[in-house]
Amino acid sequence: MRIKVEIDERSGFCYGVIRAVKTAEDNLGGKSKKNPLYSLGDIVHNSSELNRLSEKGLHIIDMEEMKNMHGTTVLIRAHGEPPQTYELAKRNNIRIIDCTCPVVLQLQKKIAKTDGQVVIFGKLGHAEVNGLVGSSGGRAIVIENMNSEGLERIDFKKDINIFSQTTKDPGEYQQVCGIINGKMEEGAKLIVHDTICRQVASRHAQLSQFAKQHDVIVFVSGQESSNGKVLYELCKKNNSRSYKIESLQQIKKEWFKDGDTIGICGATSTPKWQLTSCARFLKITLNNYICSTLFKFIYGNYRRF
Ligand code: SF4
């Protein structure tokens, strides 16, 4: 089989994730280090990258574990945290390495200063959204879509300030704002805040083009990545032969035909090295009969290569 493979130049970690991962690496000294580094939640929604950092000594903890810690060092990831987390760290004498993305931090501050009704368009339970709700003092109403339970709590007779989670689809946000605006009662206004991250928003048009320009799209992303879900759906909309994978083992031969051009792309939480290894893997296994046969032999499964 002869194929061409191209990696989307704009795919790979966003600024906030690069900063958080680099800070973690700068503060890691290997598993044997006396003072280990803990990350509150997955530093990035990508299991391969998490394994790589775990090999270097990063420990992922949850809030329950943090409650029982004293005198340790905890890294706050790019998603940010609500004020209660900082209060807990102070009480338990925990040193915080704060990697909250400056874009998220700015949004938290904006929400904290906003009086009246606050609505957040985002994923319920998502770390960034929890941090935003915390910044509002718990007042903010979260809506995921127009069927969300949160809608019943909105008072359309009063002004509403609406903000979006930084990684949402700009088109979807616009649609939701349009529907809410249609429900506003006389005298009340909807104030829409443009809070989608520029790095995410600007990728939509470019990624749509990239998906159209290739016969097949292989989208590499962790299952938990909210941005990954949004960007994969965008690829699928523009190219029906789009496939999402988390690891190379999920790739299937039947996705490809002789002469195909294959575009490889990913979420803001997908490391560049994973896209490069995916491209190398496809070039070797699809272009080279011997390697392909060897791969079949190793995996003993003809559904894969
Ligand atoms: S997507 Fe944007 S806001 Fe979110 S962490 Fe990355 S750079 Fe920051």
List the helices and strands and how they pair.
Layout: E1 4-7, H1 15-26, E2 37-40, H2 47-55, E3 58-61, H3 63-67, E4 73-76, H4 83-91, E5 95-98, H5 102-113, E6 117-121, H6 127-135, E7 141-143, E8 160-164, H7 170-183, E9 190-192, H8 198-213, E10 216-220, H9 226-238, E11 242-245, E12 261-266, H10 272-287, H11 289-299
Parallel strand pairs: 1-12, 2-3, 2-4, 4-5, 6-7, 6-8, 8-9, 10-11, 10-12
Helix pairs in contact: 5-6, 8-9, 10-11
Iron/sulfur cluster (SF4) binds next to α1, α5 and α8.
What would you say this structure looks like, in words?
- This protein is α/β, with parallel strands linked by helices and 305 residues long.
- The protein has three domains: 4-12 and 198-299, Cobalt-precorrin-4 Transmethylase, domain 1, CATH 3.40.1010.20; 15-100, Rossmann fold, CATH 3.40.50.11270; 104-192, 4-hydroxy-3-methylbut-2-enyl diphosphate reductase, catalytic domain (Cobalt-precorrin-4 Transmethylase, domain 1), CATH 3.40.1010.
- The protein is 41% helix and 17% strand.
- The strands form three sheets. It has a four-stranded parallel β-sheet, with helices on both faces. The protein has a four-stranded parallel β-sheet with strand order 3-2-4-5, with helices on both faces.
- Helix 5 packs parallel to helix 6 (127-135).
- The structure holds iron/sulfur cluster.
- Iron/sulfur cluster binds next to helix 1, helix 5 and helix 8.
- The site of iron/sulfur cluster has 14 residues, from helix 1, helix 5 and helix 8.
